[in-house]
Amino acid sequence: MDNDYPDSPEPMHNIVLIGFMGCGKSTMGRILRKKIGYQHTDTDHVIEKEAGMSIPKIFEQQGEESFRDMETALLKKLIEQQCSKHIISTGGGMAVREENQALLRELGFVVWLECPPEDILAHTSKSNNRPLLQCDDPMAAVTSLLEQRTPMYEQAAHLKINTSELEFDEIACGILESARYHYGTT
Could you give the residue ranges of the DSSP H alpha helices within 37-116? Predict the structure, then answer.
């Protein structure tokens, strides 16, 4: 495994799921937890619990930058705690900061779950918990955000999986086989 952090102890064997909102990170995290018994950590849920409010409320009261600070702090905390054998589902914007891209890779094997804008909109249209999509033209917002974030996801990820035509079990098998290869285990 290439390790950009030579001073760190043994590598943390985590599977970190990144990607745009609505691409299945939380669902896949729960499925992987059942398959391999790792603890599942959903970063958005952890942040909501620590902040004592929902993500839309954080955006409304403190702004997006404050929320991004919370994401970075959580990644650092997980690394500091030497979190290992976790499936970590991240928020859709976790990789927008260059600092977070390096932290994600330090934390574990990073898998980018990707799907087309139409699927994203179908998966998120009934949710009021998506502050960046509460606008007059959610499709334009999704398309614009995807254009901005795609290079960031590419930078952070070890593996990219397009989820649009795959069953959850197929995705899980692909992730687990790739993670075994990445960590050099059988």
Answer: 43-51, 55-62, 64-80, 98-107
Q: According to CATH, what is the number of the domain 15-183?
A: 3.40.50.300
Identify the pLDDT of residue 140.
86
Confidence category of residue 4, pLDDT binned at 50, 70, 90? very low
Strands (E) in the chain, as ranges, are: 15-18, 39-42, 86-89, 109-114, 159-162
Give the pLDDT confidence of 70-89 residue by residue, as tens digits: 999 999 999 999 999 999 99
Distance CA 92, CA 76 (A): 18
DSSP 8-state assignment for residue 163: -
The percentage of the chain sitting over the pLDDT mark of 90, rounded to a whole number, equals 67
The one-letter code for the residue type at 158 is H
Taking the domains of the chain in order of start, what are their residue ranges?
Answer: 15-183
**Residue 145: which of 106, 108, 117, 110 has the closest Cα?**
117
